[in-house]
Amino acid sequence: MSEKIMDGKVIAAEMREELKKRLAPLKEKGVMPGLGVVLVGDDPASRSYVTAKERACQDVGIHSQEIRLDAPAPLEEILDAVRGYNRDPDIHGILVQLPLPDARMEAEVIAAIDPDKDVDGFHPVNIGRMILGLPAFLPCTPHGVLQMLKRAGQSPNGRHVVIIGRSNIVGRPLANLLTLKNELGNATVTLCHTGTGDLAHHTRQADIIVAAAGRPHTVTADMVRDGAVVVDVGVNRVDDASRPRGYRLVGDVDFDGVFDKVSAITPVPGGVGPMTITMLLYNTVEAAERKQQQG
Ligand code: NAD
């Protein structure tokens, strides 16, 4: 594989080995980190994300269990599942797979999760703590991007990072984390979105571009300056009759087009995706450690 490629699978595997080492002292004290999953409905993409997360738990040695509710589940039923996990001493982290079939329920469901078990880092308490630079469960995709940059020798420290996308799960938390004065951040940040007039004007000035728009070919060669670092968060299905499933996954970046210009780039798949899952495991182990320390 080219040296330019920041390989999420390799970096994630390295982090998972570190997590396995952190499990040993917990297990000596009889603590097995546990993740409680809530999955509502039978959306195939959500099902496959949950399966991937549960497999990753198994691989590292984290216990996982799942509550599956048929859609459309009443709000109270989803809240009951969350409250049950909140009370369960064997569950240290709670994951409600989003999107819920009824997106209007999401805010209330997230708010019902005990912030000390909020391993997705979406609870308002954790988001507030993150922005203030206090200890918090960090949202998995932004944290995964930062760990990947650090471990690939591409620290954002002192560099100009241009982010495309302002969602609550990727762009905005990432922008906030990058502005913090710590080993993962200390960058100058520009956050672009659909209201940005001339996207290319901004991306051409970036030392590091993070694309999280959810649209193929959002970043093309003319938008990237020589030597830039490109992180592609996007996961988009495009029709491909040559594939057994009839589609393939591509990112937001024209990978082949920008490749010769960049100094480093993440592939899709195999870039940010494995990092996101690993950061969920990381938060679950951390939640168990915190619980154990509190006694
Ligand atoms: P979203 O749809 O909630 O947000 C997309 C953002 O991009 C919006 O804020 C919008 O303003 C901006 N945007 C869209 N087109 C744009 C354009 N042409 N110019 C400027 N801004 C534009 O999406 P999301 O949940 O943040 O996810 C973004 C992408 O990342 C999706 O493809 C998603 O599948 C992927 N994703 C991947 C992972 C992973 O682990 N690899 C995790 C989360 C999301």
- Provide the list of bound ligands, each named once: nicotinamide-adenine-dinucleotide
- Weakly predicted, low-confidence segments: none
- Principal-axis shape: globular
* Count of helical regions: 10
Number of DSSP-assigned strands: 10
CATH level-1 class of the largest domain: Alpha Beta
Largest sheet: 5 strands, parallel
Helix content range of the residues, please? 40-55%
| Strand order in space, largest sheet | 5-4-6-7-10
Give the end-to-end Cα distance, rounded to a whole number of Å.
46 Å
CATH-wise, what's the superfamily of the largest domain?
NAD(P)-binding Rossmann-like Domain
Quick recap:
This protein has ten helices and ten strands. The chain has 295 residues and is of the alpha/beta class. The mean pLDDT is 97.
Description:
The chain is built from 10 helices and 10 strands. The chain is an alpha/beta fold and 295 residues long. It has 2 domains: 31-116, Leucine Dehydrogenase, chain A, domain 1 (Rossmann fold, 3-Layer(aba) Sandwich); 140-272, Rossmann fold (3-Layer(aba) Sandwich), CATH 3.40.50. Strand 8 (236-239) and strand 9 (247-250) form a beta hairpin. It is globular, with a radius of gyration of 19 Å. It binds nicotinamide-adenine-dinucleotide (NAD). Residues 141, 164-167, 169-171, 192-194, 196, 199, 212-215, 218, 233-236, 272-273, 276 line the site of nicotinamide-adenine-dinucleotide.
